[in-house]
Amino acid sequence: MSARGATKEAILSTSISLFNQYGFEQVTINQICQEINVTKTAFYYHFKSKDELISEVFSIDNIVSNDDLLNILTVTDFADQVMKTMGIYVKHMVRLGVEMTKENYRVHLRNQILPLDKSKSPLLSDIIPTLIQRAKDEGQIRNPASAEDLLESMCNLANGVILKWAVEGGSFDVLEETRKRFEILLVVNRE
After folding, report:
1. With pLDDT > 90 as the criterion, what percentage of the chain qualifies?
2. Burial category of 1 from C-beta neighbours within 10 Å (exposed 0-12, middle 13-18, buried 19 and up)
3. Which of 40, 63, 85, 89 gets the highest tally of CB atoms within 10 A of its CB?
4. At 126, phi and psi to the nearest 5?
5. From CA 123, how far away is CA 24, in angstroms rounded?
6. Are 25 and 79 part of one and the same domain?
């Protein structure tokens, strides 16, 4: 890894630690730079702002691990593959806890974009609609809407459940709740 790559990773990991310890609003760019002994120029080389940094922390690039992929591929039910794949995105969105998830939504709302957006990931935009269509063809999903519309609805539903989870302080199992809501939306056939 290059020094620039190492610096970016150091900025990200240090920022997460400081945000969790002191809260997003209380942590300054100066504090982040002092903690890892880098200049503000180095920080700004990688990130234009703390908001951009938080977006990077929650970026959906490269979130599927080999274990996740194996878990998805070992399931022969296409509807279950769809829900496991969407579950990976939900886990990723909430992995840093309630406060960081709130900040992620705050940043995205200010920038007028949704955190879980199908256009940001080939897995979401290309593969999941194919799995949805296969599940529909096999009679595992009975909702008559198109695969693309169902995916869009799943993304919107996941954003809503995650936001509710954050607002309620993490008071429920967000993965279980999204899976339950996905099954209702898709009209999953469990016979």
Report:
1. 49
2. exposed
3. 89
4. -110, -50
5. 30
6. no
Residue 47, pLDDT above cutoff 90? yes
The pTM of the full predicted model, rounded to 2 decimals, is 0.80
The two three-digit tokens of residue 187, written as one number:
């009209």
**Encoded amino acid at 32, one letter:** I
Q: Are 92 and 60 in contact (CB under 8 A)?
A: yes
pLDDT of 171 > 80? The answer is yes
Pair 82, 130 in one domain: yes
- Helix extents (H) in 24-173: 29-36, 40-46, 50-57, 66-73, 78-94, 98-110, 122, 128-137, 147-167
Q: What is the rounded distance in angstroms from the CA atom of residue 117 to the CA atom of residue 58?
A: 12
- 3-state helix, strand, coil split of the chain in percent (to 5) is 70, 0, 30
> Is 70 exceeded by the pLDDT of residue 32?
yes
Report how many domains make up the chain.
2
